[in-house]
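User: Modeling request: complex.
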Amino acid sequence: EADIYQTPRYLVIGTGKKITLECSQTMGHDKMYWYQQDPGMELHLIHYSYGVNSTEKGDLSSESTVSRIRTEHFPLTLESARPSHTSQYLCASSGISEQFFGPGTRLTVL
Amino acid sequence: AQSVTQPDIHITVSEGASLELRCNYSYGATPYLFWYVQSPGQGLQLLLKYFSGDTLVQGIKGFEAEFKRSQSSFNLRKPSVHWSDAAEYFCAVGSAGTSYGKLTFGQGTILTVHP
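Assistant: Request completed. Predicted assembly structure:
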C-alpha cells in the first residue's frame, strides 16, 4: 500500500544532541516537504524538494537541514538541538495534485 | 503573496447540528484550494479539493465545500455533525507554475462536538 512514513513518532532529547528525523514515501512522488507545527497552530513550510539532489528552504527560517539522495527518502537533521526546536514536524509528498502527510514526529528538546 | 484566513479559531456544535467552517484566501490567479483534517497527534488527511469546474465539491466523510470567487471564499460544510468529526480543520491554497505543489495553510479551526 502506498504511504508516507515518519520515524520516530516521538523523540525526547537533551540540548546539543544531533538528531535526524526520517521520512519515506512509497508513492514515487518527486515533490516532498517538511512543515513545522506548534500545538494548535498553523503549518509552516521549512524545506521542500522537487526531486533527487533538489532542496530549497521554505517560508519559515529553520536551523535544520535536509537531503534528497533517493526519491523516496527525505530526512531532516538538526546538528545541535535546542529547546526552541521543540515542535511537531510533518513530512508530506505530492504528485500532481494534493499533498499526502505522514503522521508527524513530536520533538521535545530538554 | 498568497494567504489564507480562517476567522474562527474554535467552534463548538452539538452532535447532529449543521456545520460551516469559513475560509478566505488571497491569491492573484485561480487558486487550487484544499481542506484537510487533523486529529490530535496525527498528520493531515485530505477532505476535499478544488482545482476547476463545478464550484461545489464533495469530499469524504460527508463534507462539501463551495468555491466563491467573488467572495474569495472556500467554506466547508456538513449537514449533520458526528462526534467523530471533532478535530482541527485546515484550509490551504496552492499554486500552479514553478511553485506548484507548495501550499499555504490557514491557522486552523478547532471543532468541538457536544453530545
